[in-house]
Amino acid sequence: QVQLVESGGGLVQAGDSLRLSCAASGRSLPHSAVGWFRQAPGKERALVAGIMWRAGGTYYSDSVKGRFTISRDYGNNTMYLQMNSLQPEDTAVYYCAAKVGPYSVNFKAWPYWGQGTQVTVSS
């Protein structure tokens, strides 16, 4: 089992930045992918960024490429999502997730989830 706890959401204005954190505990993650999903009202949960915990390969959705950066800290067993140039369309609940093996854009393939943190961007 992997336990994930997010923090760092909030209300910001368009153009601002936020950094989300996700602390992992429990099962070791070396052969895992970790990622950040988001879900806006009425929309499906979508992968915005993923990273292989050991190898470091990353994935970004087209909607956040160049604005968001995913990273991980081995020592603290924590991953981060740095979000810059936030726009109202980035408003959503953000979830961190983990899975064994490579990342997948299909949220149903990820068994471990955090509780979610709200990010609201006002125009």
What does this structure look like?
34% of the residues are buried. A hairpin with a 6-residue loop joins β4 (32-39) and β5 (46-52). By secondary structure, the protein is mostly beta strands. It is globular. The chain starts with a strand and ends with a strand. Strands 2, 4, 5, 6, 9, 10 and 11 form a 7-stranded mixed β-sheet that branches. A 4-stranded antiparallel β-sheet has the order 1-3-8-7, with no helix packed on it. It has no helices and 11 strands. It has strands at 2-7, 10-13, 18-26, 32-39, 46-52, 58-60, 68-73, 78-83, 92-100, 112-113, 117-122.
Instruction: Report the β-strand fraction as a percent range.
Output: over 45%
| Number of helical elements | 0
Give the tally of β-strands: 11
Q: What integer value in Å does the Rg equal?
A: 13 Å
Q: Between the first and last Cα atoms, what is the distance in angstroms?
A: 40 Å
Largest sheet: 7 strands, mixed
Order of helices and strands: EEEEEEEEEEE
What proportion of the residues is helical, as a percent range? under 10%
- What is the arithmetic mean of pLDDT? 94
Would you tell me the structural class of the helices and strands? mainly beta
* Low-pLDDT regions: none
Short description:
This protein has no helices and eleven strands. The chain has strands spanning 2-7, 10-13, 18-26, 32-39, 46-52, 58-60, 68-73, 78-83, 92-100, 112-113, 117-122.
